[in-house]
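Example 3.
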Amino acid sequence: LDIGCGSGLSGEVLSENDHIWVGVDISKAMLGVAVEREVLGDLVYADAGDGLMFRPGSFDACISISAIQWLCNADKTSHIPKRRIKAFFVSLYRCLRKGARAVMQFYPENAEQTSMLTNGAQAAGFSGGLVVDYPNSTKAKKYFLCLVAGEPNTRLDLPKAMDDDGVEVPQDTVLFTSSKPERRKKYARDKDGKRVPVKSRKWIVKKKQSARLAGKRTKSDSKYTGRRRGPKF
Amino acid sequence: MRLLTHNMLINPMKGMEGAFPLKLFPTKVTKEEVKFNSAFIVNLLPKIDYKALQYAATTVGIKDLPSELPKKIDQEEHDALLKKLHHILLEVHVEEGKLVCPKSSREFTIKQGIPNMRLNEDEV
């Protein structure tokens, strides 16, 4: 399944690799170009934000190139981005067979859009994570949402991100868990009931994880994270 | 639109779960050769709704599908059947026509082989 297949550029790559594919796009004009190019895949004129229109377990895999960021926009007053994102990811999860993978490259305008998409995918039941290639380059930086439609906490070996010299960066991979997000307390109490600083190690680790989900460069966690710093001298 | 795609297509509107298969009224059908991949068809068959496929095949004039598929498919033994299914699923294209939801009678036109599944604002 090719979400936002457009004029069929990505579809041609699929065909070259002998895949049978179905492309969905919201633009009649782009689909017209795909027809002219005589792409081998089937095309469907539809809005992915309305929910996908396929039977459960129809597809073995899904790709998307530069499309899902448009779910974050409200092009009409009737559009609520979060609702469209939910409709998309829930229907995608259903359309994929169990264990199928979806890899979606997208261009987020900001960290909020990245969060909306990753949270939407997670809420729909997907496991997986975000991979960011060339994180330091404004031009080459690319976000990939890599998902698997499996059991919660399915381990997906995310592809390693690329960095400036084409060398793979041993970054922390970002994994979804199915644990409920904790509510942040204003004041924490220790076992004696004494008020204790909120910014405990636990809180810091959680904050770093949400920064990773938003695609920000974050140092890996270690025994030094949130550790009390001793006197400077 | 191939018959394989028709076999997967449902009405995305709310409350239309189970409205499958979409009724098919083709007005222009073409055939285009696709390389036969036996293993692909064998793996595909469990996913196919065979009754829906038989229905779609009759709408495009193909009536000689067996009434049911053999329980275990063997690539060599059932080569002819697999080639026939390959032809029906992948080589037949509905270029013009319409799809109709069996529940709501909502129509979806097919033009240039592309079904228009865009919903109106009140249908989402």
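Strands of chain A lie at 2-3, 22-25, 42-45, 59-65, 96-106, 127-133, 142-148, 188-189, 195-196. The mean pLDDT of chain A is 87.
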